[in-house]
Design goal:
This is Alpha/beta hydrolase. Keywords: Hydrolase, Membrane, Transmembrane, Transmembrane helix. It comes from Nocardia halotolerans. GO terms for molecular function: hydrolase activity. By secondary structure, this protein is an alpha/beta fold. Helix content is 50%, strand content 12%. Strands 1-3-2-4-5-8-9 form a 7-stranded mixed sheet, with helices on both faces. The protein has a two-stranded antiparallel ribbon with strand order 6-7. The longest helix is centred in the first third of the chain and has 36 residues. It is elongated.
Length: 382
Amino acid sequence: MSSLDRHPSTVADYDDARRRVRLRETRFGQRWCSWRRTKLVVLRLVGVLLVVLTVGAQYWVHDVVPERARLAHTEPELLPVHLPVDARDWDTAVVDLVGLGNITAVPTAAALPSLSRLGVVWAVRYDDAGIDTKVIAEMIVRAARYGAVRNIVLVGHSMGGVIALEVARHIHLGSDRHLVAVVLDCTPMDLDAVRPESRTRGSDLQRLMGWLPGARESRLLRMAVEIAARRERFTEHRHGLLPEIDHRALGSVISEVLRDKIFSDDAASNGLIESQFLAIVAGGSTADLRALARPHPDKQRPAIVFIRPRDAARDRVVDVAYSHRVLIEHAGGVDGTLSVVRPRRTEHANPIQRPGEYNAIIEAQVLPFVRRYQEAIREAGP
């Protein structure tokens, strides 16, 4: 006789049917006689709510609050980058403004030492809380007065050109300084000039800002949107509704976003990106161009320089051919002040990646054109 025959109760103890019955009998709320199902539903909802509140509290405390505290102490700044090559050019300041998603123009201006052949080079560091072009213009004018600078040249890269044109209008019409030129590097003259696939990030942020608490400060949201904006690099639609994901490319994108947009001190906040994107959406660049073209009793019209790739397809962010046409309409023509520079190897506003190409075209084409306006202002006197 086996041990199981001698002890039949052992088999009964491990009977699966009895185990399930016992589990039901000892389940939480089993002995509730009234409203049992309702009470269980309420308890589950309370549990889910507690989890959501806990996660939300962690999001607010560790993501939103530290970033909000940091942003509360920021304001726009004007930072020196290059001294003028020629002491005679101390009367001119070249002010660089950077594009969408960045906060300071210092690295870009540092890559363009050729600008110092026009004068002292300054870079604008935006206020992370947003953009006020009148405040930026007043900051530039105050610095110019303090340094005995009479003439201003503005340089705007990509979206920075949209800001530069609005700042130019304030300086030209509302100050005693002379605006020599505005240099636009692959600038979208309105939202139609932004290629459709490049509108995603700004549109997503603008929409999410309206309903998600802490969206202006949230680094988690910023990371999600930045990764989504680069989805064409790691997704591919082959079969079915869902795209296939290249996990190696996704890892590369995540590393890039963390390095350049989340942990970098030079990355713009969500609120600043929203302000930058809205500046493009507002589409005031053509109005600014018209304002700069109107006769002024004491000032000459400023030069407008547009830098764009010779092959428009090389710029995957902005339709530079479209912006080119808009600029010809509003600043070109027989009596216009427009010069278009078309290097062969540049892409979208990338002087840091192509410093040799940019400095060469500035030396060869931009400087001679802007110099004529600079000398005309000097000859006219105060």
